[in-house]
């Protein structure tokens, strides 16, 4: 009994779905006309934003990328001539015991971080 009731409700819902989206009433026609008017109004604005994205944003991103790369290269060159000095403060790399894989954490990078083995 329950299964037949559920199946009939699902079947009627599916039938209503097709009817709902193919409505030809005056209200549906007014909605379609409004939707078409919005599309016609938004077309030129969308085209303008597309042109802005292509001709302004992309070159600006390229210029910012080139600038960032040049600054980074300058910084690397500067760091070769003036390396950082390691000051051993008592609270840096403080460990009650070593990790089971060694002294450094999982995020250790030997080109950036000072090694605990250097202490």
UniProtKB/TrEMBL annotation:
GO molecular function, one term: enzyme regulator activity
Key word Cell division present: no
Listed GO CC annotations: mitochondrial inner membrane
Subcellular location: Mitochondrion inner membrane
Presence of the UniProt keyword DNA repair in the record: no
Xref: SUPFAM superfamilies: Mitochondrial cytochrome c oxidase subunit VIa (SSF81411)
Entry's Gene Ontology BP terms: mitochondrial electron transport, cytochrome c to oxygen
Keywords, sorted A to Z: Membrane, Mitochondrion, Mitochondrion inner membrane, Transit peptide
Gene3D superfamilies, A to Z: Cytochrome c oxidase, subunit VIa
Principal cellular location given in the protein's record: mitochondrion
One family name in Pfam for this protein: COX6A
Stated family: Belongs to the cytochrome c oxidase subunit 6A family.
PANTHER family named in the record: CYTOCHROME C OXIDASE POLYPEPTIDE VIA (PTHR11504), CYTOCHROME C OXIDASE SUBUNIT (PTHR11504:SF0)
Protein name according to UniProt: Cytochrome c oxidase, subunit VIa
